[in-house]
Amino acid sequence: MSIKKGIQQIYLKIDSTMRGSVQHQIKGALTAWTTRYPNAKAIICPAYPDMGG
Q1: Residue 34 is part of which domain span?
Q2: Distance (Å, rounded) from C-alpha 50 to C-alpha 35?
Q3: Are 14 and 46 in contact (CB under 8 A)?
Q4: Domain named Four-carbon acid sugar kinase N-terminal: which ranges (predicted)?
Q5: Number of structural domains, the chain?
Q6: For the segment 8-52, what is each residue's pLDDT rounded down to a tens digit?
Q7: I want to staple 53 with a disulfide (CB 3.0 to 4.6 A). Which of 3, 7, 8, 47 is the partner?
């Protein structure tokens, strides 16, 4: 992951039905992100588009 100066948020698109390696995708992104922002937190909001979310 390339972290450019000035960027303070990342957006990780995941499968809304939580299939696959979602846990590992989130953990990998957060691990990389916390190298620059040690107190970073993840907010996870999966939505299913067909449900109007």
Answers
A1: 18-43
A2: 36
A3: yes
A4: 5-52
A5: 1
A6: 778 888 877 777 888 898 899 889 888 888 888 888 877 776 765
A7: 47
